[in-house]
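Researcher: Structure prediction, please.
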Amino acid sequence: MKRRIINLWLLLLVLCPALEAQNWDYIRSSGEYYYGSGTGKTEAEADKAALNDLVQMIAVHVSSDFQSQTDETQTNGNIDHKTYVRNCVSTYSSSALTNVEKWTEGKEPEVTVRRYMLRSELDKIYEKRIEKIRDMVAIADGALEKAKVDMALQYYYWAYSLARSLQHPTEAKDEAGHSLVTLLPVKIRGILEDISVAFEKREGDCVDLVFNYKGRPVSGLDFLYSDGREECDGAAKDGRGMLEMAPGYETEFYHLDIEYEYKNLARGDDELQAVLNVVAKAAFPESSVSVKGRAAQGGTSVAASRPTARPATASVASTDAPAEASAAGPSPSQTVDDDALYCEAMEKVLAAIKSRNYVKASSCFTLEGLDVYNKLISYGTGRVVGQPDMVYYRSSNGQVVARGLQMSFSFMNGKRKKTFVEDVVFTFNPDKKISNVAFGLGKVAESDILNRYAPGWKDETRELIMEFLENYKTAYCLKRLDYIRDIFADDAVIIVGNIVKRNLAAVPEERAISLEGQDIIKYNRYDKETYLANLARTFKLNEFINLRFTNNDVQWLEKYEDAEIYGIQIGQEYTSSRYADKGYLFLLVDMTDHNAPQIKVRTWQPNEVSMSKIFSAGDFYND
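Model: Predicted structure follows.
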């Protein structure tokens, strides 16, 4: 009996290679599969070669039926269609070819890997990309309804680029049956045509501009401009932007290119990033703006006159922009009647900032306020934008809040200048001293909180949430590690999601389908001290950090009668001197003690997470 078993094993060892060879012959000859093989000194090297061979076969097969919308790839001035098709197909290899089977033969340093997939799977891969396109269009439509033109441009253009990479671009359609590859550029042009830019004034080398969309201030917009010496990054917020020109450079016209590609924010999404690298950037002449400057205007401000930028035309967006978001302003009961002393203090602060003699305003601050002020004036090169229209109101805790100042902050990010525009908010204590300085959220984000329908919410609640988010944002921008340490509970749950590659060694050999190269989201949980240590390193390595909150949703956990606990979901764009990305921030905050809010849970998820999988209060408090 024992000898029979041994003989059977020996027979199987002889037959297995032959059976495998027959199976591989069938895969290659049946016409049912796409396949590729590769050899290398390591399994990873052989696998990469096999995937490349597989992609090449797919590209050859679909090349004659692959429709390109524009002259995407050129060789010696001629369109190289085959190269373009192969590049488009390769954008699927790292994130969408999930049903690719794998055989491995031999051992290092002579390894052979064979990759293959059913041809019928290709249509499923295309359909998955079409679903992603539709999701992006839905995000852009929602952003445009709230007049968030920067987000609308970004997602419309990303969806347009993905559609152009399809084998049959016209197959991506909206719910009404319209071809998106035709409709999306019309939407993008419509938005760009409805953006107007006007010169307001120039002081020294700084030029203040006014940015409107359909006659109303834009909530946010990014652009490129030349300072007369080099190309610079600029940004507008709540209708205000600034150009910082090279010293002594005078010009009659200022030229801007409105950003719509947002390639730097595609990091982490390998599929999208690959498409943006392969599909040639679509040109939209409407994104180029020339603004008449001081020389053309006789050296006067045009703030009180009609803008002389490109004329506005009717937008083709499906919905008109809503009325301008309500700014954070006082109700009649909050109006400060005796504001003379507050005005006097703010005039001193503004004069100190404009003259860069910052010490002159020191007497206006408490010690704590002065510490934040000193960090603020060290945040790049700061300048006042436009003519401040200060509003003073009394908050629910009795303190007076001053809003209406906008400042630009410029950094030399390598060889390229980067500028941000921020609202700056000042809080006065009962002694009429400035006890805190913070960056505002912007009118749209403020409106999300102040005007949100939430039965049972008091004005005090809304102010408290807005103040907390402003201080949170400011602490990261100004690298206030001490403040961040104070607002995190000692037992806080901190979860950070990152895009990672699946490890080949983690896939069992007997598993037919390999996910090598596929993007996954790995979640790391940190305790408070580890998170703060990592954050301290990040602060040290970066010249600057800036946060932009694109939208927020706040949930009050009413069932905890003796505590005020809120779940806050925020769309966040993170920009630093070394890295930029966007994603979703969730904070579970205990605000029972209004003077000492505590973050119980903080999670960060990259932008590639499905909306249905974004963390909420229910993921942590569901008892």
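Model: Residues 10-21, 71-77, 296-328, 500-520 have pLDDT under 50 and may be disordered.
Researcher: Thanks, that helps.
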